[in-house]
């Protein structure tokens, strides 16, 4: 469990730290990156155990990729695409959601837009992003699914014990 997580941090770093211009974000723009890589890692651990096998869990609702992103979420985040794909092409959403780098940038854009203190602790941090990601930008105070919440908290505590923020 720990190894794939650490691998993913490394993997994300390779992808996300490289200038976006080199990798190309298609037609969308990544404005800034409020979400740390440790936070992204705990989100994907809780959502999919960071299993990067390209997959859409529920093709109708379309929750795709390691962050289980929906089409609506992707639209709200500015329709980022990979390989210069036009955002209106049929597979633009699925291709982005199944690409860890494009999916992570989609989260950054979504959080940039919906950044708020969901749990009322006076801070905007990963705990809020976990809520916004699962519950959306307009109802993030609600109840989180138990499995998701416990996996997420476990991941955060794990990093804290290792001395990470
Ligand atoms: C990742 O997901 C795929 C598709 O669901 C599955 O076949 C595979 O066993 C998973 N890999 C791991 C390491 O869990």
UniProtKB/TrEMBL annotation:
Known catalytic reactions: Hydrolysis of (1->4)-beta-linkages between N-acetylmuramic acid and N-acetyl-D-glucosamine residues in a peptidoglycan and between N-acetyl-D-glucosamine residues in chitodextrins
Taxonomic source organism: Drosophila albomicans (Fruit fly)
Alphabetized Pfam families for the sequence: Destabilase
Keyword match Cytoplasm: no
S-S pairs: 39-126, 44-50, 96-102
UniProt EC number: 3.2.1.17
GO molecular function per UniProt: lysozyme activity
Keyword field: Antimicrobial, Bacteriolytic enzyme, Disulfide bond, Glycosidase, Hydrolase, Signal
Phylogenetic placement of the source organism: Eukaryota, Metazoa, Ecdysozoa, Arthropoda, Hexapoda
Enzyme class: hydrolase
Signal peptide stretch: 1-24
Record Gene3D superfamilies: 1.10.530.10
Swiss-Prot/TrEMBL GO biological process terms: defense response to bacterium; killing of cells of another organism
Protein name stated in the entry: lysozyme
């Amino acid at each position: 469990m720990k190894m794939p997580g650490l691998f993913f941090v490394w993997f994300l770093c390779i992808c996300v730290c490289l200038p976006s211009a080199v990798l190309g974000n298609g037609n969308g723009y990544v404005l800034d990156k409020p979400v740390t890589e440790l936070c992204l890692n705990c989100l994907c651990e809780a959502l999919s155990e960071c299993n990067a096998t390209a997959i859409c869990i529920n093709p109708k609702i379309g929750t795709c990729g390691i962050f289980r992103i929906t089409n609506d979420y992707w639209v709200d985040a500015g329709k980022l695409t990979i390989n210069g794909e036009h955002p209106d092409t049929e597979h633009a959403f699925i291709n982005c959601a199944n690409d860890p780098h494009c999916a992570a940038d989609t989260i950054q854009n979504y959080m940039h837009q919906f950044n708020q203190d969901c749990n009322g602790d006076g801070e905007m941090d990963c705990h809020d992003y976990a809520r916004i990601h699962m519950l959306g930008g307009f109802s993030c105070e609600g109840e989180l699914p138990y499995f998701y919440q416990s996996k997420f908290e476990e991941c955060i505590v794990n990093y804290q014990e290792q001395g990470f923020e």
